[in-house]
Fold:
Amino acid sequence: MTGFSTRAVQTGFTPDPLTGAVVPPLTLASTFVLKDIENSAEGYDYSRSGNPTRDAYCSALASLESGEAAKAFPSGLSAEDTLIRILTKPGDTILYGKDAYGGTGRLFTWVLPHEGRTTLRIDTTNVAEIRAALEQTKATLLWLETPSNPQLEITDIAAAVDVAHKAGARVVVDNTFATPVFTRPIELGADVVVHSTTKFIGGHSDLVGGAAIFAPNLSLGHQGLSETDSVVEEVGWWQNAVGCVPGPFDCWLAHRGLRTLNARVRAANASAQKVAEALTEFPLIETVLYPGLPGHPGHDIAARQMGGFGAIISFIVGSRETAKVVCENTSIFRLAVSLGAAESLIEFPNAMTHASLAATSDAAPANLIRLAIGLEDPEDLIEDLRQAFDKAGRA
Ligand SMILES: Cc1ncc(COP(=O)(O)O)c(C=O)c1O
Structure:
């Protein structure tokens, strides 16, 4: 098999034999001419059921995540919702991390219990706690997010998979923050990887998308609605049945993002390390949460599990008021939700990405700021934060 970057650039298509075009074509067609009433000409009949642009992108993504197959979704949350419906049934218990993206928290706190699943937040950085919770609840699914959003907690994927599989539970890993450039959870034993492709995979803040990538030979353990026990086939059947598929242009953009993923993520990671180190010297910052700092509680696991520490940094300041002044006074960092793109972003999770949990005991800390490091010069980013903190110091 060729290397990661070669596959990122080349998997999923070959130059168009008619024109020689070196990038994948964008097939916008919603419908395809059939050979006869029972057979399609090239395997496609209607774009909800399948689309060549989507398939090209999915084969590249599966290759980069070392999976058997990938399925694309209209958003990260849509991928999460579909996976959970297929991997669990009403009455099941699902364990997930105490620090997780706010939209995931909303899904697990309100939607899934409404549909008869029990969800339990645990400290997934503590393998003994995972083991105990699996024993107590007989959970069938363990949902991991590492590094987690927004507190950058690190879970040891291989250790968590080991205890979960011994207890008969499956493991899904949200790999949005690490990306397959830095962590490939399927190689560490995970059953399914999920992404918000809105983030690093798209990479340019111009699409909303999600994806699920499946370990080889995943079986449902029973016959699904698709009349097979294959998880991949069941997900495809379900997507067609309920219509949770992305449009071809979003797939095309995400596939374009994959081709430069390696270079973008590595550049942002190098800048993030510099920004995080600089922030440790800022007098108004109490704690910098970045797995690349030796004092981070997950540093050793991250150093083993990740090829780089990522481009997201969070930090704790003295008060919500200080956080507000800093967030509202940067000029290079844009005050916006999301992450993983060319431009650096700053946000206040408690009132922004995690606002849906603000009134609950799972609220993001009210003095935590999250940075998404982009592709600008790190010196400019540090200077921008310094002047915002100067304003906060005078406020
Ligand atoms: C870690 C993580 N997972 C999932 C999601 C949800 O993805 P989307 O916004 O594409 O639905 C997000 C969104 O911010 C996220 O940060």
In short: DSSP finds twelve helices and twelve strands in the chain. The chain has two domains: 4-252, 263-394.
